[in-house]
Fold these 2 entries.
Entry 1:
Amino acid sequence: MSAGARIDATPEQLAAVQYDADGLVPAIAQDVSDGTILMMAWMNAETLQLTLQEGRTVYWSRSRHEVWRKGDTSGEVQWVQQAFYDCDADALLFKVIQDGNGACHTGARSCFFRAFGPDQPDQAIQPGQNGPV
Amino acid sequence: MSAGARIDATPEQLAAVQYDADGLVPAIAQDVSDGTILMMAWMNAETLQLTLQEGRTVYWSRSRHEVWRKGDTSGEVQWVQQAFYDCDADALLFKVIQDGNGACHTGARSCFFRAFGPDQPDQAIQPGQNGPV
């Protein structure tokens, strides 16, 4: 099991983050080892704080309307190494160590395994295989 | 000037994309050369089609409420090499060649130049310098 870093964000940094009308901000998870973009999900102020405190990504599940501690069910925990917010403070980026096969519920390493374009099978990547990203 | 790739997405691929209540979908731009996440912005169905047709990112500006052909003003065009949609088809990823200094209006290469944590200056990166991402 990998280790995540507890990040002591300042009150100013936390206050800077801009949430949408639903109180959510998009959060990108990137594999720190090779730059692969693993997934994009959403956080609210609570789950951002949990993510920084626990050193692992904790999202807000928009479909289940609940805190989603990534990997609690699947084992595919994302251990946070660094956390960034963008120039407008309305998007987040987490550089992580990805436990398990990958980030995607399909079994793919990255959720972005489907490319636009002709001759792109809708499910080119089988569970357990790495995506092209 | 770099070249972008026209991508002929299938009608099924375009129809799969899920837009939010405002008709928008988050779009991540990643530097194809080294995996740096350059920015995250938004597209609607029209600007996604324009992006795929023109081979450069065209976003929807939520602040200006208009089509935002990235780089028309700044020269910092993003030439699309590959385009992906995620497992839920509610997030997009574009691997691009970034023209100019970078993606960010501050002059930073990446919009994600601010890290959470103590001793993280709010503006660690000066315009024209590369960000830590």
Entry 2:
Amino acid sequence: MLAGGIGLCQRPTTLNPPRILDGKALAVTVLETCRAEAAALRAHGITAGLAVVLVGEDPASQVYVGSKARTCAELGLYSRKIELPASTTQQELLAVVRGLNADPAIHGILVQSPPPSHIDEAAIIRAIDPRKDVDGFHPENVAKLVLEDPSGFVPCTPAGCMKLLESAAIATAGADAVVIGRSMIVGKPLALLLISKHANATVTIAHSRSRDLPAICRRADILIAAVGRPEMVRADWVKPGAVVIDVGINRVSDAARKSGYRLTGDVAYQEVAPRCAAITPVPGGVGPMTIAMLMQNTLQAARQFAG
Amino acid sequence: MLAGGIGLCQRPTTLNPPRILDGKALAVTVLETCRAEAAALRAHGITAGLAVVLVGEDPASQVYVGSKARTCAELGLYSRKIELPASTTQQELLAVVRGLNADPAIHGILVQSPPPSHIDEAAIIRAIDPRKDVDGFHPENVAKLVLEDPSGFVPCTPAGCMKLLESAAIATAGADAVVIGRSMIVGKPLALLLISKHANATVTIAHSRSRDLPAICRRADILIAAVGRPEMVRADWVKPGAVVIDVGINRVSDAARKSGYRLTGDVAYQEVAPRCAAITPVPGGVGPMTIAMLMQNTLQAARQFAG
């Protein structure tokens, strides 16, 4: 390693072990702040409330919904879990959403994705009161993100990535950031956050159709992988000294485990980590931040309703 | 020139004169299609109507508004020019917009930018019926652009840039596109169009705070300058064989001219053009396309209102 020397483009950080961006620990800190805020709101007679709607019996979705409800309980937020059969019609689901829109005990509404295929998810999202859209997927909040209007809700996963960078004091201004993936849930909103006047990064959005993805990624001071392909990002995709944020949470089969699978990110952690200045692990990186930001958004909603 | 040879990264096109992307000619073609469409709508009893609201006496704005009205007249569209004094209040302007929202003769509404400083422009834009927002600046249309929903209106200048690329059969899929500028009017929407599933480019958004802007620009297969700084992009910012789209229209003083000024783009045309595969001139490039796309948007609005 030392033989390679420190070139102009290489920072000495490559010689040190990388800094692990511990999302689990940061989430605990964020949730402590949330707990204090929830208490302050309760002192004003307001209990922040989150409704989570689940249509169908997808086991992974049930796990997510359960952990959201549990976190609410731990922080002193009110939560309501609404479990509907897979046969629920569009009209029935719309009626549930409208009921929650009108319910003063509920400040945040989340319809767990993905719904069964006969449901028009975009129409359901449009039906949510944008002031209760704590997922940040309603067109009104999407537009606020583009327009850099802080009254909107920022989608939880991109917000969690930004929080991880911020709390580690990683400078984004002027940095070359590359986002792999252009989804509405992560890639696009994250690119918009990084390009904003707040973050001032130079942002490249790359994707499955990009030519020479490794070369594009090698330009990145901050590399964010959000594609959902296990261990796609290899060591030679990463500039020495880069900061790597791994949004992917993929199940790959692993006979050595009792469960028969293990979780892995979009980044080949073992080979990439030694090159990085900082990297998020999977699990324990971006994942825990997502739920923490959901709690933060729910409290923002409750505060905005309060006045 | 020939002595330089043709390197791996250089296309032989650098040796040939660049292709001039003639926006003036393309606009004529687009406007001919608009004229035919307007006639077809009239045959169904619908005359597409555009209202242009001008607050104050800014001479440049008066020129723009005048040329929009003239183009409408030439194509057989109804147009209404509403000129209000600079002293118009927010409430008065809102009342005008609401009147136009309710007017069945009007399908497109445009409030000429910039309004006087006491006007809250964002609030005026939000007051426009999104179905009549032919500028594409209403949050609902901004969100549709992000969500790739074709029922929305695309801002005219970015739409004109895409049309120029498309009509010249310049492949965007997999290409490295660099957009300099992150405004809501050009940079951001153009980046979103280029990253969409329709165009599939790898997009970098650079700006005034980007580090080593020349190096970032040199990566571009398609380079789009939208910053409003005269001749900022120099020859050594451009990869040989790149396609260059110049969105800037800057007035620079020129004693040799009777008017005392000349128009120039954000690109130093004389030195950049010989390196390019294709380039837009200023004037006569993106400029004429903007008004053509406004007419196209107005017709889209009239069609959508018709059913």
